[in-house]
Amino acid sequence: MNRGLFNGLAAAFPNILRVERPAVVLDLQPIQDPNWFAGITSAEGYFMIDIYNSKTNSFGKVVRLAFQVTQHERDEQLLKIIIEYLNCGYVVQNRTWLDYRVIKLNDILKTIISFYLKYPIQGVKALDLADWCEGADMIKDKKHLTKKGFDKIKKKNKNRNKHGSKI
Q1: Is 140 helix (H, G, I), strand (E, B) or coil?
Q2: Measured between alpha carbons, how far is residue 11 from residues 7, 8, 15, 97 in Å?
Q3: What do you get for the CA distance between the two ends of the chain, in Å?
Q4: CB 71 within 8 A of CB 98
Q5: Dihedral in degrees, nearest 10, Cα atoms 10, 73, 46, 136
Q6: Least C-beta-crowded within 10 Å: which of 19, 21, 70, 103?
Q7: Which residues, in sequence order, are CB contacts of 55 under 8 Å at separation 6+?
Q8: What is the set of domains in the chain, with CATH numbers?
Q9: Among 105, 67, 102, residue whose Cα is nearest residue 87
Q10: Which of the residue ranges 110-114, 117-121, 139-143, 146-150 would you say has the lowest mean pLDDT?
Q11: SS3 for 28?
Q12: What is the chain's alpha carbon radius of gyration, rounded to the nearest angstrom?
């Protein structure tokens, strides 16, 4: 929708006019309602389980968790407000978008997961969050360092972001 309606939809609704958004959002206020942030996570959030090669363990793989919220680069101020609100994380620039990202395990456990236990997200993304939280508990307890634990996290990771296709 950011670039207007696609051709088929535009033909079906010829009287819809594209409205340009302002390039910069001015005077954003601090987050007042934690449920708003839980809601934006349902739409724009991502609970990542990153598995990559490493020589530090016997089976050659490492697991890292990350939480991220993605926005267009024009919404950088919004992401900075999220950093202030949660008191953790940082912003990463991509092509035309920005990611608010948290990768420190302590921040994930004490801030991000604690937040969503108090203010749960709704919908299918809550299933991804549950898998991610289970992975976080395994990492906290060092179970990911065993082959059995690693395989369990890997299986959870394979199923992430596929819950919506089951509905």
Answers
A1: helix
A2: 6, 5, 9, 29
A3: 24
A4: yes
A5: 180
A6: 19
A7: none
A8: 33-161 (3.10.28.10)
A9: 102
A10: 146-150
A11: coil
A12: 19
